[in-house]
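Progress report, Aim 2. The chain analyzed during this reporting quarter is listed below.
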Amino acid sequence: MIHEVDEGLRRLLGESGLEASGVEVVFDAPTRDWAARRTAPTVCVFLYDIREDAARRGSGAGEVYDTDGHLVARRTPPRWFELTYLVTAWASRPQDEHRLLSQVLACLAAADTLPARLLTGTLAELGLTVGLDTAGAGLDAPAASDVWSALGGDLKASLGVRVRAPLAGVSRAVAPPVTEGLVVRSAARSEGGETVPGRRLRYTEASDPGPDGFAGPRERPAAPARRRRGDRRP
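Predicted structure tokens for the chain:
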């Protein structure tokens, strides 16, 4: 699921024209060594915190059907997680970095969710809403200064982006549907002493009862009309 969220963010930022203008979108940790090797304008989307939203944990199991409408599996409900990213812009001048960061902010702030057309894998199969919160004041995650301190880099302007995404539940296959009838075997033997082979019962339509199958319920014959008083018998 995490890599599918990454791909959704990459596609969303790509629609803003970043990649078309030669800006690279990466998901690396912006350490000091990484920054020293950077040579082109870059937007770094660094995932640094993952937490489960326990309030949205469900119970029970859902049913999974195939294209023919047959039950094929039972799946536990998805569990929701909050993924927090640190988004930074890297260029040769601070003015260029701020311009890139402004373009990223305009793109992400315009969306409250990751559009369904950008989702892949299990996120697309589940069909659930993937929430997106950009630069929110209520982000319950480590402060940006603590993240930069852990990375060993200098404090830099950044955006906090939180994605609420579902992790698909565990699926357990069910027994396949019954496709053959029962086999009835008789203990009787033929005149030669051989066992009479069993006969397989088939469920057939009422309009096509077979000699070895179960026909549908027979129609009852119409009841004879009642005679009126005074009518003479023939």
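Residues 2-173 form a domain with the STM4215-like fold (CATH 3.30.2000). The chain has two domains: 2-173, 178-216. These observations will guide the mutagenesis work planned for the next reporting period.
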